[in-house]
Amino acid sequence: MTHFPRAIQRLALVLPAALLASQPLLAQEPAAPTPQYLTPADGTPWIYEGSDVPRDEEWTFGELPNGVRYAVRNNGVPPDQVSVRVRIDAGSLHEEESERGYAHLLEHLLFRESKYLGPAEAIPTWQRLGATFGSDTNAETSPTHTVFKLDLPNISTTKLAESMKLLSGMVRSPVLSDANVRAEVPIVMAEKRERGGPGERAGNASREVLFAGQRLATRTPIGTEETLAAATGASVSAFYKRWYRPENVVVVATGDMDPKQLAAEIEAWFGDWQGEGPHVPAPAFGDPVAPAGADADNPVGEIGVIVEPDLPRSFTYAVMRPWRPVQDTVAYNEGLLRDALAQALINRRLESRARAGGSYLYAQVSQDDVSRSADMTFVNFAPLTGDWKAALDDIRGVIADALATPPSQEEIDRELAEFEIVFTSQVEQRRVLPGPRLADDVVNAVDIREAIAAPETVLTVFNSMKATLTPERVLDHTRALFAGDVIRAAYVTPTTGEASEAAIRAALNEDIAADGEARIAAQAISFDELPPVGEPGEIATQAPIGVLDIEQVEFANGVKAILWANDAEPGRVAVKVRFGAGYRAIDPDDAVYANLGYAALIGSGIGELGQEELDVLATGRKFGFDFQVGDGAFTFYAQTREQDLEEQLYLFAAKLAMPGWDPNPVIRAKAAGKLAYESYGSNPGGILQRDLEYLVRDSDPRFRTPTPEMYDAATPAGFREFWEPLLAQGPVEVLVFGEFDKAETVEALRRTFGALAPREAPSAAVLERAVDFPEAGATVVRHHRGDANQAAAVIAWPSGAGVENLRESRRLEVLTSLFNNRLMEAMREHAGASYSPVVRSDWPSDVNSGGRIAALAQLRPEDVPVFFAEAERIAKELASAPVGEDEYNRVVEPLRQYVSRASTGNLFWLYQLEGATVDARRIPMLRFLLSDYTQTTPADLQVLAQKYFGSREGWRLAVIPQGQEVVTASGGEDAVAGR
């Protein structure tokens, strides 16, 4: 019988018993068969060949006579799910010139039709099995591999066998006909179109420079219009037969099932597969080669200056070495840890310099083995102005210092403490690692030709080598990172003439003086030395809320906390703090300061402590400090652990009680906002990011993206004037969910949040501020400066908000899922007009206005009218007749499985209960959670559609290229025409 963690055992206290009684795994399963090709206990699994890394005993490996390799593992997170990955060792680097894009096109075609699945049956079939398309059912194509991904909820042996059969049919026997290729190519073209624009062009141009002379320079997975348009069933079949062979395949399966059962199904459905024709070795990907004339005095090779007027400045230079397969030994991994330490030391210095106000917005050093094509050390940065050389010199000066002088032992110890917290947390959380992540880890290890290690092994290796991490040895690894025969650079700039290849080459060839000013001096800061938040508060009330073992604690100062101590997720504690009134508290003229708060409020410090000091305090601890402005409250959020929980609570409370006002983070955030603004106009997605929230809230200034002029007018003093009273605003709610001692945490809350001075609630006028929805009428038009074949369209209807009708918001999720399926079929399958249209319901529960249902798609300009017509048609059809049983089940079953899986985690319950201390009606509504998603009948959905779609037309937004316009034809339908 499946072992359920405490969270799912207690689900019965909340959800109707009848909805939990039908879990198939509660029935007795037959004994698992014995696979024939498991690696014996005294054998070496295929992934560990040539490695002395200790075997992760939780994985079981096997290799079939035909060459298929597999890895299986039992894992109960989430319960009742199995995750399957099928990796093909073929990506875009395996394509010939005439086949560019074929690896990715095949990824699509395998979902279109195969041995056991008729045309366009794959997605609905997986939905009937409870898998959501795009999250539970997906695939990816990279330069080096193609991976098919399936997460199967509500698993049973029968369902596993059927799913493995269907998946094997897709991989082994796709139908690669001319008709299917013709049907799928427009969808891939739509995906290519949506990815296009300045960012894609700049990325491709940079790749051509950095990988000059190698396949990776031009082999992007999306391909070219010419090769895709020329694809036929025969040409795609030739690529398929060459690479889709058993010896190129690895199957990974992990989940809530006996590993032998998983292995047996893999052997049953992949064991008799034979490739067609002779085995073809992978092509040589090529090595980076220095150009003629490059030498030790002039090592810099290819340079690219890429001018894109709508993109912010970014500079990349790389030191390149040939990639070669490695023996994945313990010694090799020790070397990787030393390399990582060397990078962390430089990056901390670079960040410190940027924080203090430098010539660049950000800078980072990173080493990566890129697509088995090159071993590279990258230096990436964003100059603040057109003086790219000043930024380059500053960054190279910091790196030169790291290459000349060993780091201090104090610096090393600080980074080691950061590494240790990561590795220790991985051990603590091992039993709650989700199956999909574990499966992906194996796939990624195979891709880079390395083994996998258990978290305990990683921690042991780390602890055993710490004594060897001397300053001199770290210096050796730093120098090795920047040693290489090939140096290349690409600079993306919005300004023509700002840089030349010769100028950049000369700058990189210059000797640079070491700059040690960015070294961070050792400093000891202890939480014990910090001032208290105030006098510890008194507990006014403490009682269960009546759900699970969750308690509510109220302190005498008015702060309320919701606590759920449980062991469902070892080593994890989620903390969320809600305070004030969110967007309701923001005056229209202050939108720029609300926006700056995301980037600068936390960095501006606490009391006398700036960001550098807070980083020192965080050394060796697991802290977080995310900040958001919500519809009805401001929020802090962190993932921490029990031993760091009190300090995490102190940081949050101290930010409210004694905020710091360092001006540098504000200045930096202003610069970042200005640099990003111009790029919004470069494509339809950027326009939507910039304007949609503003427009769909009836052009409410509070939701406007600040312009460069608004950033220029903002000041650090104005920032403080805006945020200081808001940080003093009530009410305050603290949610703590995870593995912790309840009594100790209540005491920690008493010393932190309970010690805050009493806070005034926002005025009634603030709390009553509403968000309006725009009137439907003529289509709102925005223009972008990007490619002429790109557009976007949005159609939206107002819905509800608040807690009173929260159950209706859940039912709307079912309705919008139906809408989404129909719109996907209409726009992607039938018209080939959009790759990924989406329908979404937004129902803000902590305010009483602002809800909406919106459909969105990126498409060709000429298809904008098609989108509006199809969306209106679907809305009217949903309102005019109930959906059929099969269509209904294809939506409800994935939602049922989603709720069942998500409800095993603490964050699910935290999100359901946040705000409950302000509006306690949330708590009794939990009992209807699953039934609202799964027992809302087709007739109920029709009534909802009539309510929200039947009474008015949708509000429309079209984002089209400059030089085009939306016109209204005589029949009243929109059309797009050139000017």
Structural notes for this entry:
The chain is of the alpha+beta class and 979 residues long. The protein folds into four domains: 32-270, 2-Layer Sandwich (Cytochrome Bc1 Complex, Chain A, domain 1), CATH 3.30.830.10; 300-433 and 442-518, Metalloenzyme, LuxS/M16 peptidase-like (Cytochrome Bc1 Complex, Chain A, domain 1, 2-Layer Sandwich); 527-765, Cytochrome Bc1 Complex, Chain A, domain 1 (2-Layer Sandwich), CATH 3.30.830; 780-882 and 937-978, 2-Layer Sandwich (Cytochrome Bc1 Complex, Chain A, domain 1). The chain is 40% helix and 17% strand. The strands form five sheets. Strands 12-13-14-18-15-17-16 form a seven-stranded mixed β-sheet, sandwiched between helices. It has a six-stranded mixed β-sheet with strand order 1-2-6-3-5-4, sandwiched between helices. The model is unreliable at 1-28 (pLDDT under 50).
